[in-house]
Amino acid sequence: MAGNGTLPGSPYSGMVYAWGQLIDHDLDKTNNDGANHIDITVPDDDQTFGPGSTITLTRAVVDPKTGTQINAVTGWLDASMAYGSDAGTAASLRDANGRMKVSAGDNLPTADGAFVAGDTRASENPDLTALQTLVVREHNRCADQLRSAHPEWSSDKVCGTARSIVTGEIQNITYSGFLPLLLGSKAPGDYHGFDKSVDPRITEEFAGSAFRFGHTIVSGEIAYFDGTGGESGNQSLADAFFRAACDVRSQRRRSRPAAAPDGRHLAKVRRAPCGPAAQLLVRPAGRPGPRGRQHPA
Ligand code: HEM
């Protein structure tokens, strides 16, 4: 995934949005309670949805004691989108040699025709699935090297060490590449060690609103490349939602350049004949959305 920077206002490739979504799925996931509706009423003049349409949405699962949203994944940048946020999931994704399980073609493992990863959103779009796959392949590359350098190591040690390396790589890309691109001089500076006075939990403001800025920079098209680097086709992102598992090819993918953040969503994505997941993405990002408004305090 590498764009050529031709979109006005955006010198960055589609990797910026894809990486943002990948690390978001590492950091937070708010489950819906499925009961208390805060459906979105679509304005009658909307070009995509018909008059009188609604997009179904229910409130986030909250802690009854505090009323605050519960994060369903680990809030650390710890590669939980690849390894899982609980021990059972982590165990189900690795094999007895400390490698991560894969399916044919060195792809993510599958269950019931869908890719399986540490996070349930891994197949949401092909760019995201490609990065999820890259993380698993990198784990296995590290695990193979560790195994041959230290044949006496247990598989747990191989697996744990490979995971530490991969997690460090993800943190490095995020803090050395992604955040400086995004925040410029406001990016976090050098790391000076663990500070236990900082509350590391994900805030509702971050998950419910701030980091959703990424919805405004999504690329509307995915280009396909063959083994020689030649472009072999295009697919609208709207047609690709949750289709990654049935669409694995030898072709390589890359996104068009990231859109400039402008508080709006891409028209091409808005036209998607899609399910609730993508419909929620298309809500104008410049205004506080139902999720952001759910906790007025
Ligand atoms: C094709 C790309 C994407 C799609 C289809 C998509 C779709 C969605 C959907 C359906 C939700 C749940 C909405 C809700 O229940 O309130 C969501 C949540 C979210 N998205 Fe995206 N998203 C995409 C890309 C991104 C990117 C690029 C970022 C950040 C750089 C991002 C950040 C977030 C965050 C922070 C949440 C809240 C997660 C939580 O804690 O539950 N998304 N997205």
Quick structural summary:
This protein is of the alpha+beta class.
Description of the structure:
The chain is globular. It has nine helices and nine strands. The protein has one domain (15-293): Orthogonal Bundle (Myeloperoxidase, subunit C). With 297 residues, it is an alpha+beta fold. The strands form four sheets. A three-stranded antiparallel β-sheet has the order 8-7-9, covered by helices on one side. Helices cover 32% and strands 11% of the residues. The model is unreliable at 1-7, 246-252, 270-278 and 281-288 (pLDDT under 50). The chain binds protoporphyrin IX containing FE. Protoporphyrin IX containing FE is lined by residues 17, 20-21, 24, 28-30, 124-125, 207, 211-212, 214-215, 218, 237, 277-278, 280-281, 291.
Pick out its properties:
single chain; 297 residues; alpha+beta; Myeloperoxidase, subunit C; two-stranded antiparallel sheet; binds protoporphyrin IX containing FE
